[in-house]
TrEMBL record, chain A:
Residues annotated as the enzyme's active site: 39, 88
Protein name: Mitochondrial inner membrane protease subunit 2
Organism this protein belongs to: Lasiosphaeris hirsuta
UniProt record, GO biological process: protein processing involved in protein targeting to mitochondrion; signal peptide processing
Taxon lineage: Eukaryota, Fungi, Dikarya, Ascomycota, Pezizomycotina
Compartments reported by the entry: Mitochondrion inner membrane
Topology of the protein relative to the lipid bilayer: Single-pass membrane protein
GO molecular function: serine-type endopeptidase activity
Automatic annotation (TrEMBL), chain B:
Keywords: Hydrolase, Membrane, Mitochondrion, Mitochondrion inner membrane
GO molecular function: serine-type endopeptidase activity
Major place of residence: mitochondrion
Presence of keyword Hydrolase: yes
Limits of the Peptidase S26 domain: 28-103, 113-151
Residues forming the catalytic site: 48, 91
Stated family: Belongs to the peptidase S26 family. IMP1 subfamily.
Pfam families, alphabetized: Peptidase_S26
The protein, known as: Peptidase S24/S26A/S26B/S26C
Length: 173, 175
């Protein structure tokens, strides 16, 4: 019995030492995460109103705050709630003039330096139209792949979104 | 596990390059996480926090347990990711969500005030004339706060940071 306990502890300690590298990998390289909520409907969670199943996505975290472009799906710390990570699509980069949606007080808005304008694809989205442009420093990663469900699994082709294709920053709104 | 005349860890690593690399990687990851989630030190520079911090040559001890504005109070010194560029700054928190703060520098003509929005804080440098802070870029999301400055280190001199805006007990202005 004591021999079993000894071996057990030995294995436990040995596996536990892999925890820091694993956390670092998740923080700085890539992470797999479930998407909750309808804000990216119909691109993510298209069946949010008929199923509890959530899309499984790959979040790529290296150089997350560099080379941002319109149409990209990014994850960022919610400016209203620092403990929440949110997924939205980039609509406008710094300097762009974006056309906003209702809750926002002005119809047109120029994105200030170091910020981006983000919005969800769906109607039920709390995004820059609520809290204004977000700082690039809040961005933690970008969604590069959908892993599950299988029929939509694959690379996220953000460059095919009208916001990017037309170079028209109003197209997403 | 073979060890030769060495026992323990040294014996495990000696003559096993692959094992050594793995061990070094794990150790680096562990120390990195300690600085990321525990305590971090960083040099302070710039005039924006005079006279609390000196212009150069002082190091700050930052408690990363207060990252994302956890348990910070008005009057605390925080290190934060500057929202408009890629650097890290140190400023004092003057307002937390719900507080009313002055938009402009005291003494200027404008007396306008705003309420700090949900999830944000209002940070201002101690040296009002030489500080780029919330008066310039507005309220800062708490998610950009890296940690609270708890102490300063100069060569051979360690000093805890005292919060001197308020008495801790009754939160009324000092003096």
């Amino acid at each position: 019995m004591s021999k079993f306990l000894g071996q057990f502890t030995n294995h436990l300690v040995r596996y536990a030492t892999w925890l820091p590298p694993l956390i670092c990998f998740n923080n700085y390289v890539a992470q797999v995460t479930f998407i909750s909520g309808p804000s990216m409907y119909p691109f993510l969670n298209p069946q949010y109103h008929e199923s509890l199943r959530q899309d499984l996505c790959l979040v790529y975290k290296m150089y997350a705050q560099q080379n941002l472009d319109r149409g990209m799906l990014v994850t960022f710390r919610n400016p209203d709630d620092p403990d929440k990570i949110t997924v939205k699509r980039i609509i406008g980069l710094e300097g762009d003039m974006v056309r906003t949606k209702p809750p926002y007080p002005h119809e047109y808005f120029q994105v200030p330096e170091g910020h981006v304008w983000v919005a969800g694809d769906g109607d039920k989205s709390k995004d820059s139209n609520y809290y204004g442009p977000i700082s690039i420093r809040l961005i933690t990663g970008r969604i590069t792949h959908i892993l599950s469900p299988w029929n939509r699994a694959g690379r996220v082709k953000w460059w095919e979104h009208p916001v990017h294709r037309n170079g028209d920053v109003n197209a997403g709104n | 596990m073979s060890g030769g005349q060495f026992g323990g860890l040294i014996g495990d690593l000696l003559g096993h390059p692959f094992r050594t690399v793995i061990f070094a990687g794990k150790f680096l990851a562990f120390t990195h996480l300690f600085f990321e989630y525990g305590i971090q030190t960083a040099p302070a520079q710039g005039p924006s926090m005079l006279p609390t911090f000196e212009l150069l040559g002082q190091w700050l001890v930052v408690s990363r347990r207060h990252r994302f504005g956890r348990n910070v109070e008005v009057g605390d010194l925080v290190a934060y990711n500057i929202p408009v560029d890629e650097n890290v700054g140190v400023k004092r928190i003057l307002g937390l969500p719900g507080d009313y703060v002055m938009l402009d520098t005291p003494g200027r003509e404008s007396q306008a005030m705003i309420q700090v929005p949900q999830g944000h804080c209002w940070i201002v440098g101690d040296n009002l004339a030489a500080s780029r802070d919330s008066r310039y870029f507005g309220p800062v999301p708490l998610a950009l706060i890296r940690g609270k400055v708890v102490a300063t280190i100069k060569p051979f001199h360690f000093q805890w940071v005292e919060k001197n805006l308020f008495h801790r007990e009754n939160r009324s202005p000092a003096n």
